[in-house]
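Q: What structure does this chain adopt?
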Amino acid sequence: MTSKLIPSDPSKVMVIRQVTPNITTCSAPFLRFGRLKIGGRGTIVRLQSGALAVFSPTALTPEVRSVVESMGNKVGYIAALDYEHHIFITDWAVAFPSAKLLGVEGLPEKRGNDNATAGSSFQHVWTQKYKASMKVDPDFDKEFDYEYVGSHANKELVLCHRPDRTLIEADMMFNLPANEQFSRTGEDPTSGIFTKLFIGLQNTVGTAQWQKRFLWYAASAGDRQGFNESAKRIASWDFDRIIPCHGDVIERGGKGIFNKVFDWHLNASAK
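A:
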């Protein structure tokens, strides 16, 4: 199934970009359900300790390995930021066996039942019950704020790298179209009727009314109060940049865009 979602030769189409001196992104084409052009993005952050934290890892190509080596080659943390972003976890875990694996509840069981992704265990798993007391280690915790949004349908883990004022997330918010992620493919990232419809639903342009509706009526429907509380906690952090897994990086003004998209949840009222 993954052959329908990810490129057969990621090296040819991946865009590797140094966003800040401490943060590098690896952006590649990705087709949700085999047809929606939403793109995929892994993020590598170098901590003050020299350890690297890898979030929603993409394919471990020779070019990505070279970047990891140039950043010190000390991969200390590998994180799947939700229930879906784990396809390449095993490849990274095998390559960097001393790294701590971070994930969300339900994911270890899901991976254990899938021969394509099984073979790695998580040292830290966020759960709704224990999220308030969850800690990773002193080096990680002093640089990251994190909120587990177990009330989201995909069980999201959202982080803020405080030194670079950068929010890192998976499916909490989309910023389509996926221009950067499809920029080396020669394909129009907006082509296809289903992609066009999904872009209309998952963008941050103007009032972002359709993404607000999606978040309110779909993503948070199971536990809207819990979702509202998580959105408020994230909005209290100090960030300017947002690195989503799907769609373009928001280089500046990210806090205002986040507040706009999550306005209904921040005010606990749809409009």
